[in-house]
Recover the amino acids of this structure.
């Protein structure tokens, strides 16, 4: 399905204290750009009764206090802010560099990805580490970034049978997307590398290195550098 911005924003109720605000269809920069812009505007101009904002590919999930506000009031406030988007300066996205050790024990599926597309492993690494990937949304596990912009030549299906354990920091590919596993978990993505960075630290005030709307750029590092960085963080 091609990406499409709606002419009129669509609203759907999500339980007794949630409102889903949909801006378009498909996974694409132009749709997610509006999601990001509205999230930033709401952060700058809070609406009374709003509890949390959760950006997704094409929508915002608004959580609100039903004792303070209601769906009708929220809709009016959101549409009013949307009309002001053109006059509000939205800063360019922040780019976060993530070091990655590709292949070997860190990326057991990189040779499969290379063979699938008739590429060498070095070419897979070059292609994967070239773009600045926009973070469309965060979910699945704490801090898991769903990234857009994977070069089409690297689009690779998920594993037929998911792994029961994917190590923390693993970088993978699933169909047209790439992402990082911040915590160990089951998963079915093709693993091509691993970062030594600690991506989720719940004890910190800001537990994540990035947020939806940022961009991620992967920086290849050697196995020796990977081991040094892991040792330095005490893991």
């Amino acid at each position: 399905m091609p990406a499409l911005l709606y002419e009129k924003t669509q609203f759907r109720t999500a339980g007794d204290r949630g409102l889903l605000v949909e801006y378009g269809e498909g996974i694409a920069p132009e749709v997610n750009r509006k999601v990001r812009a509205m999230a930033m505007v709401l952060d700058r101009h809070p609406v009374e009764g709003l509890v949390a904002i959760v950006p997704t590919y094409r929508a915002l999930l608004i959580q609100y206090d039903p004792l303070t506000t209601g769906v009708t009031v929220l809709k009016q406030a959101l549409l009013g802010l949307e009309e002001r988007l053109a006059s509000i300066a939205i800063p360019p996205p922040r780019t976060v560099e993530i070091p990655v050790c590709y292949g070997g024990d860190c990326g057991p599926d990189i040779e499969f990805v290379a063979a699938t597309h008739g590429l060498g492993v070095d070419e897979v690494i070059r292609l994967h580490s070239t773009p600045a990937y926009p973070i469309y949304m965060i979910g699945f596990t704490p801090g898991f970034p769903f990234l857009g912009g994977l070069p089409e030549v690297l689009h690779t299906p998920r594993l037929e049978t998911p792994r029961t354990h994917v190590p923390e920091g693993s970088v993978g590919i699933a169909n047209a997307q790439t992402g990082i596993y911040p915590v160990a978990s089951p998963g079915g993505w093709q693993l091509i590398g691993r970062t030594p960075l600690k991506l989720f630290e719940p004890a910190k005030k800001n537990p994540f290195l990035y947020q939806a709307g940022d961009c991620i750029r992967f920086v290849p590092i050697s196995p020796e550098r990977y081991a040094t960085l892991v040792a330095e963080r005490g893991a």
User: Anything to note?
Assistant: The chain has a mean pLDDT of 92.
